[in-house]
From TrEMBL, chain A:
Gene3D superfamilies named in the record: YVTN repeat-like/Quinoprotein amine dehydrogenase (2.130.10.10)
Biological processes per GO annotation: formation of cytoplasmic translation initiation complex
Chief location of this protein within or outside the cell: cytoplasm
Subcellular location: Cytoplasm
Pfam families: EIF3I (PF24805)
Family statement: Belongs to the WD repeat STRAP family. Belongs to the eIF-3 subunit I family.
GO CC field: eukaryotic 43S preinitiation complex; eukaryotic 48S preinitiation complex; eukaryotic translation initiation factor 3 complex, eIF3m
Keywords: Cytoplasm, Initiation factor, Protein biosynthesis, Repeat, WD repeat
Function: Component of the eukaryotic translation initiation factor 3 (eIF-3) complex, which is involved in protein synthesis of a specialized repertoire of mRNAs and, together with other initiation factors, stimulates binding of mRNA and methionyl-tRNAi to the 40S ribosome. The eIF-3 complex specifically targets and initiates translation of a subset of mRNAs involved in cell proliferation.
GO molecular function, one term: translation initiation factor activity
Quaternary structure and interacting proteins, as annotated: Component of the eukaryotic translation initiation factor 3 (eIF-3) complex.
WD repeat segments: 35-76, 77-118, 180-214, 317-347
Name of the featured protein: Eukaryotic translation initiation factor 3 subunit I
From TrEMBL, chain B:
Described function: Component of the eukaryotic translation initiation factor 3 (eIF-3) complex, which is involved in protein synthesis and, together with other initiation factors, stimulates binding of mRNA and methionyl-tRNAi to the 40S ribosome.
GO terms for biological process, alphabetical: formation of cytoplasmic translation initiation complex
Annotated compartments: Cytoplasm
Source organism: Arabidopsis lyrata subsp. lyrata
Similarity remark: Belongs to the eIF-3 subunit B family.
Taxonomy, superkingdom: Eukaryota
A GO cellular component annotation in the UniProt record: eukaryotic 48S preinitiation complex
Protein name, UniProt field: Eukaryotic translation initiation factor 3 subunit B
C-alpha cells in the first residue's frame, strides 16, 4: 500500500468571515491536506458513518479509500473499466457500492477490496445509494442507444453468495433522454427522491413505483440538477443546479416544500450540509470547457459557505485549480473535503475560529 | 355550368364544337354574360394601371413669366436644373402658355422616370432661388387635390385650455437628496433611487422592452430617451416615467442632446448594398419640447466624416458637436477640408458658408464658450507645420494659433469650465522611428491666451490617460510603461506660482489605465480596467493620499454620481460572469452590490448645475458642521431602524427554521421503531443526536482596581 500525503508548505487558504453588520473581516487560516491519488477529475466523495474513512470516486477507474483524519491512502478498488461516478458505503462500513460508466455497479468488500458482485446495465450507472438497513440499493442509469434513463432498485443480500442481479423495481423517468444525476432514499425507504437534467425533483413511492410529487417548475431549478445531498435524519435535502443564478435549494423531504435557496454566481456542481452547524457549502465553478486562461480567479473555484437559516454567504475556501465536483462533510462536522476537476482532494480540518463564526 | 351540361346544350342546339372558331367570337365590350373570368391577370393589370397615376410628375411654380421669344431659353434653364436631379422623361417638360398673350403662365410640369426621382427633385429644388424674385415652389402633382381643398378663408386655430404639465424636475426635490440611476439588464430597463443609507436601491420604475437598443439621459437629467424602430421617445415626469414626446425617425441608431437639452439629434445610417459605396446617412434635429423637426441632413457618410482610416465605415458620433453653454446656439460638423458651423435660430450655416480649413482632422468646442479649437496635421512632408488654432464663433476670428513641428498626432482636452485647453502632442524623435509626448497648455481666460509647454520628467514616457479636474485647476496623467505606469498630478496654479504649471506629485508603479475624477474635484479613482481586472484606488488629491484600494473584479465601467458622493462600478455583459454593479462611497467603502445577468448599461441621472454662487457654496463648505448635524442625526435614526428591522427579520427566519426542525425531530422520533426494524433491530439513533451546537457565553474578569476619588472641599 503506497502512502501519499501531500501537505505543501506555503499553500494556505483563507476562510473569510464577513461579519455582516460591521463589515469587519476576520481571517482564519487552515492548512488543507492535499490528497493526490487520482489521475482524472474527481466525481464523488463519501465519508463512512464513523467519519474515519473517506471514499473518493474519479473519472479514472479506481475508487480510492483514505484515512479521513490525515489523508493517508489506504487502498484502491480495482475492477471498473470506466469513469466511476458515485459510491455509497454501508452503515457498518463493510460494503461499498460503486456506479460506473462501464455500465456496471459493483459491490465491494471494504476491508479486502474484493469485488463481491457486479450489476450489469445497458448504460452507465450514474448514482448509487444504500437504503436504511442496507438491504436495498437504488441505482440510476443514463440513457444510451435507445435505452432510456431509469432508476433501479436492487436487493442487497446479506451473504454475497445469495446476491442476484434482478431489479426489485424499475422507475422510468418521464423524459428518458435526460440523465438522472442523483437518486436517494427517503425516510424509512418509503420514497425515492430523484433529480437530474430535466430540472424537476421527483418523489416516487417505493411500494407502488408511482410518482408521488414533483417540484413546481416555477419555484424549482431552471437548469440541470447536478447534486443532491440529504440530511442525516432524512428530513430534508439540498440540491445544487446549473441554473443561471446557480442556485442550491433546501427542500423538505416529505412534502417537497422549498424551504431555503442559496444563490451564487457560478454553476453549482456539488453541495453539502454541515451536520454540526447551520452551514451549507456549495462548490462549482465555470464549466471546465469554458474556463478562460486569463485569471484563475475568473473561474471562482471556491467552496462557498452559507448560513443555512439566513441564506447569507459567510465565507469561501479557495484552492482548487478547476471546478469543484464533489463535497462531503465529515459526520462529526469538524472537517470537510472537496474534490475538483483538477484531480485533487482537499481535506480541511476546521480550526477553532470556524466554530465561533457569528453573523 | 358543368362541361356535361354544356355538351348537352350544344347537342340540343345542333352545334358541333369542332367547327366553331372561338377566336372569331367577339363579345360586346364590358359584357361577360355573368361569367367571371378566372384569369387573375386581367384584374391585376387594371390595378397596376391605376397605380401608376401621376406620382412621377412635379409642378414647379413661381417661374418667371416670359414672352414667346424667351420660352426656349427658360425651358433650357429649367431642364438644366432638373436634369441634375433626375432623368426627365422624353417630352416630360410641359410649360403651358396663355393662348391669347403667348406668355408663359409661370409654372410648368415635369415628368420624371420614377416617383423616387420626382420626390427627390421636389425636396431638393423647393425653395431654389432662380433669382431674387423667383423662388421655386415645387409640389407633387398628386398633392394637388389636397392643396386645392385648402379653404380660402383662414380660421384662427382654437385656443386649447392650458393644461399644466408635470413637474419634470421633481426628482431633484427628493427629501433624502438621493440620486437616480437607470440600468438595463436582460429585457428590463429599471430606474432606481440610490439609497445609500438603506444600503440598497429603491425601485422607481421598471419596464420590460422599454427601449430597442439603449437609453440615455438628457444632459440636465430632465428626460430619458429610448430608441425604437419608429424613432426616439423621451420620458420623464413627476412620479413615474410617462412618455412626453416622440420623434419620428425610422431605424434610428444614435441620439444626442444639445447641452441645454433644447434639441435632440437623431442619426440613422443605412449600409450600402455595394460595399464599395459609402453608407447613407440621415440626421434629424428636433426641438425636444415641441417635437418639431428643425432640420434634416441627408447624404452619404463621406459628407459627415473626414474620411481616411476609420472614417470609411460611417460617421463618427456625435457628428454634430454642440457649442458649450446652455443656450444651444451653435453646432458644428467636421467634413473633409471643411468645418460647417450652424446656428439654431435659422438652422442654417453661419454667414451661409462653411469654413474652409485644408486637411483639418479634429475640432473641439470649449465646454462653456463658443470657441472652437481645431487641429490640422503636418502637410507636404513636413514643409507646412501642424497647427492648433482657437476660433471664435460666430465671428470666425482666429483668437490664437500655434504651429507645431514634426508632429504625429494631437489630442485636445478642454477643462470643464473652459478655462484651460490642454493639447497632447505626440512628436517624432529625430530618427522618426518613435514618438514622445508633451503638452501645450492654453490659458483661455487670460489676456492674449498664453501658451505653456509641459514635458514629462521622463520625455519618453507613453501617455496612457489624461484628465482635468472638473471645475478645478489640476489634471492627472497616467504615463510610463504598462503594466505598472506612474500617475502624476499637475496644477495650473499653486499659491506660490499662479502663472505657471507645476507638478504636485508622482505616484510610482500604479496598476491603472483610466482616470475618473469626482465631479466635484478633489477625489479621483485610479482604475485598472480590462487588463488589470478592475483594480481601484480611491485617491485624495488635496492631501495626496490614498483613501482606499479595492477591486471590483473584471469591472468594465465606472461612473460617479452627479454629486460626487457615490461611485458605481459595473461589469457589463462583455463578460459572461458576475454581471452587475457595485455602489461605493467616494472614499472607497462598498455600500452595496447588485448582481444582474446580461447587464448592459448603467447611467446616473445628471443634475442641472447648481444655482448657488461660488461664494455661497464656499460659505456652506466653511460652515459644514452646522448643516451636517441634522443629516448625521438622520443617518443615526436610519441605521438604528435598519438594525432593528434586521434583527426582527433574522428572528423570524430563525423561528421559522426552528419550527421545521421541531417537526423533523418529532417525525424522526415517531419513526424510530420503524427504522429500528429496518436495521434488523439495531438501536442506532442515539449517535445522531449526540452533537448539538450550543452557544455559551462566558465572562473573564481581567483586572480589578480600586481608585479613591478625593472629594474636593
Amino acid at each position: 500500500m503506497t502512502m501519499e500525503c501531500v501537505n505543501p508548505e506555503g499553500l494556505r487558504l483563507d476562510v473569510r468571515q464577513i461579519q455582516n453588520s460591521s463589515h469587519q473581516t476576520l481571517e482564519t487560516r487552515m492548512t488543507p491536506i492535499l490528497m493526490k491519488g487520482h489521475e482524472r477529475p474527481l466525481t464523488f466523495l463519501r465519508y463512512n458513518r464513523d467519519g474515519d474513512l473517506l471514499f473518493s470516486c474519479a473519472k479514472d477507474h479506481t475508487p480510492t479509500l483514505w484515512l479521513a483524519h490525515n489523508g493517508e491512502r489506504l487502498g484502491t478498488y480495482r475492477g471498473h473499466n470506466g469513469a466511476v461516478s458515485c459510491c455509497d458505503v454501508s452503515r457498518d462500513s463493510s460494503r461499498l457500492i460503486t456506479g460506473s460508466a462501464d455500465q456496471t455497479a459493483k459491490l465491494w468488500d471494504v476491508k479486502s477490496g474484493k469485488q463481491l458482485f457486479t450489476f450489469n446495465f445497458g448504460s452507465s450507472a450514474r448514482s448509487v445509494d444504500f437504503s436504511v438497513g442496507d438491504h436495498l440499493a437504488v441505482i440510476t442509469t443514463d440513457h444510451f442507444m435507445g435505452v432510456s434513463s431509469a432508476i433501479h432498485v436492487k436487493r442487497i443480500a446479506e451473504d454475497p453468495q445469495d446476491q442476484v442481479g434482478d431489479s426489485v423495481l424499475v422507475l422510468q423517468s418521464p423524459d428518458g433522454k435526460k440523465k438522472i444525476n442523483r437518486a436517494v432514499w427517503g425516510p424509512l425507504n418509503q420514497t425515492i427522491v430523484s433529480g437530474g437534467e430535466d430540472t424537476v425533483i421527483r418523489i416516487w413511492d417505493t411500494e407502488t413505483g408511482k410518482l408521488l410529487k414533483q417540484s413546481d417548475v416555477e419555484v424549482g431549478h431552471k437548469e440541470a440538477i447536478t447534486s443532491l445531498c440529504k440530511a442525516a435524519d432524512d428530513s430534508h435535502f439540498l440540491t445544487g443546479s446549473h441554473d443561471k443564478t446557480a442556485k442550491a435549494c433546501l427542500w423538505d423531504m416529505r412534502s417537497l416544500t422549498l424551504i431555503k435557496s442559496y444563490t451564487t454566481v457560478v454553476p453549482v456542481n456539488a453541495v453539502a450540509m454541515s451536520p454540526l452547524l447551520n452551514h451549507v457549502v456549495l462548490g462549482g465553478g465555470q464549466d471546465a470547457s469554458a474556463v478562460t486562461t486569463t485569471d484563475h480567479r475568473a473561474g471562482k473555484f471556491e467552496a462557498k459557505f452559507y448560513d443555512t437559516i439566513l441564506e447569507e454567504e459567510i465565507g469561501g475556501v479557495k484552492g482548487h485549480f478547476g471546478p469543484i465536483n464533489a463535497l462531503a462533510f465529515n459526520p462529526d462536522g469538524k472537517s470537510f473535503s472537496s474534490g475538483g476537476e483538477d484531480g485533487y482532494v482537499r481535506l480541511h480540518h476546521f480550526d477553532s475560529n470556524y466554530f465561533n463564526i457569528k453573523i | 355550368m358543368e362541361v356535361v351540361d354544356i355538351d348537352a346544350r350544344a347537342a340540343k342546339l345542333g352545334i358541333n364544337w369542332s367547327q366553331v372558331n372561338f377566336d372569331s367570337i367577339q363579345l360586346p365590350p364590358g359584357e361577360d354574360f355573368g361569367i367571371e373570368s378566372d384569369d387573375e391577370a386581367v384584374y391585376h393589370d387594371d390595378q397596376s394601371e391605376f397605380d401608376t397615376g401621376f406620382g412621377n410628375i412635379i409642378v414647379v411654380d413661381h417661374l418667371p413669366v416670359v414672352p414667346k421669344e424667351k420660352f426656349e431659353k427658360l425651358e433650357g434653364v429649367v431642364k438644366k436644373i432638373y436634369n441634375q436631379l433626375g432623368v426627365i422623361k422624353e417630352n416630360g417638360l410641359w410649360m403651358p402658355v396663355d393662348p391669347d398673350t403667348k406668355m408663359t403662365l409661370g409654372y410648368c410640369f415635369i415628368e420624371f422616370n420614377t416617383p423616387q426621382e420626382a420626390q427627390n427633385a421636389k425636396e431638393k429644388s423647393h425653395g431654389y432661388k432662380l433669382d431674387k424674385s423667383h423662388i421655386f415652389a415645387v409640389n407633387m402633382f398628386d398633392d394637388f387635390d389636397r392643396l386645392m381643398n385648402v379653404r380660402e378663408e383662414w380660421e384662427p386655430p382654437q385656443a386649447r385650455p392650458y393644461v399644466p404639465g408635470e413637474n419634470l424636475q421633481k426628482w431633484l426635490t427628493d427629501d433624502k437628496a438621493r440620486d437616480q440611476l437607470v440600468i438595463r439588464s436582460g429585457p428590463d430597463t429599471e430606474v432606481y433611487w440610490n439609497d445609500a443609507r438603506q444600503k440598497k436601491p429603491e425601485p422607481v420604475h421598471k419596464r420590460p422592452y422599454w427601449t430597442e437598443s439603449y437609453v440615455q439621459w438628457s444632459p440636465l437629467g430632465t428626460y430619458l430617451v429610448t430608441l425604437h424602430k419608429q424613432g426616439a421617445a423621451v420620458w420623464g415626469g413627476a412620479d413615474t416615467f410617462t412618455r412626453l414626446m416622440r420623434y419620428q425617425h425610422s431605424m434610428v441608431k444614435l441620439v444626442d442632446f444639445s447641452p441645454g437639452e433644447k434639441y435632440l439629434v437623431t442619426y440613422h445610417s443605412q449600409e450600402p448594398s455595394n460595399p464599395r459605396d459609402a453608407s447613407k446617412v440621415e440626421i434629424k434635429v428636433f426641438d425636444v419640447r415641441t417635437g418639431r423637426m428643425m432640420r434634416d441632413f441627408k447624404g452619404s457618410a463621406d459628407e459627415f466624416s473626414i474620411g481616411g482610416p476609420g472614417g470609411v465605415a460611417g460617421a463618427s458620433w456625435p457628428v454634430f458637436r454642440w457649442a458649450g453653454g446652455k443656450d444651444d446656439k451653435y453646432f458644428a460638423k467636421l467634413s473633409k477640408n471643411t468645418i460647417s458651423v450652424y446656428e439654431t435660430e435659422t438652422f442654417s450655416l453661419i454667414d451661409k458658408k462653411s469654413m474652409k480649413v485644408d486637411n483639418v482632422v479634429d475640432i473641439c468646442w470649449s465646454p462653456t464658450d463658443s470657441i472652437l479649437s481645431l487641429f490640422v496635421p503636418e502637410q507636404g512632408g513636413g514643409n507646412q507645420p501642424a497647427k492648433v488654432a482657437l476660433v471664435q464663433i460666430p465671428s470666425k476670428v482666429e483668437l490664437r494659433q500655434k504651429n507645431l513641428f514634426s508632429v504625429s498626432d494631437c489630442k485636445m482636452y478642454w477643462q470643464s469650465s473652459g478655462e484651460y485647453l490642454a493639447v497632447k502632442v505626440d512628436r517624432y524623435t529625430k530618427t522618426k522611428k518613435s514618438t514622445y509626448s508633451g503638452f501645450e497648455l492654453f490659458r483661455i481666460k487670460e489676456r492674449d491666451i498664453p501658451i505653456e509647454v509641459l514635458e514629462l520628467d521622463n520625455k519618453n514616457d507613453k501617455i496612457i490617460a489624461f484628465a482635468w479636474e472638473p471645475k478645478g485647476h489640476r489634471f492627472a496623467v497616467i504615463h510610463g510603461d504598462q503594466p505598472r505606469p506612474d500617475v502624476s498630478f499637475y496644477s495650473m496654479k499653486t499659491t506660490q506660482n499662479t502663472g505657471r504649471v507645476s507638478k504636485l506629485a508622482t505616484l510610482k508603479a500604479k496598476q491603472a489605465n483610466a482616470l475618473f475624477w469626482s465631479p466635484t474635484g478633489k477625489y479621483i479613482i485610479l482604475a485598472g480596467l480590462k487588463g488589470f481586472n478592475g483594480q481601484l484606488e480611491f485617491f485624495n488629491v488635496d492631501e495626496l493620499e490614498t483613501m482606499a484600494t479595492a477591486e471590483h473584479f473584471m469591472a468594465t465601467d465606472i461612473e460617479w454620481d452627479p454629486t460626487g458622493r457615490y461611485v458605481a462600478t459595473a461589469v457589463t455583459s462583455v463578460h459572461e460572469m458576475e454581471n452587475g454593479f457595485t455602489i461605493w462611497s467616494f472614499n472607497g467603502i462598498v455600500i452595496y452590490r447588485i448582481l444582474k445577468d446580461h447587464f448592459f448599461q448603467l447611467a446616473w441621472r445628471p443634475r442641472p448645475p447648481s444655482f448657488l454662487t461660488a461664494e455661497k457654496e464656499e460659505e456652506i463648505a466653511k460652515n459644514l458642521k452646522k448643516y451636517s448635524k441634522k443629516y448625521e442625526a438622520e443617518d443615526q435614526d436610519v441605521s438604528l431602524l435598519l438594525s432593528e428591522q434586521d434583527r426582527e427579520k433574522r428572528k423570524a427566519l430563525k423561528d421559522e427554521w426552528e419550527k421545521w426542525v421541531m417537526q423533523w425531530k418529532a417525525l424522526h422520533e415517531e419513526e424510530k421503531l420503524a427504522r429500528q426494524n429496518l436495521r434488523d433491530g439495531e438501536v442506532s439513533d442515539v449517535e445522531e443526536d449526540e452533537y448539538e451546537a450550543k452557544e455559551v457565553e462566558f465572562e473573564d474578569l481581567i483586572d480589578v482596581t480600586e481608585e479613591i476619588v478625593q472629594e474636593s472641599m
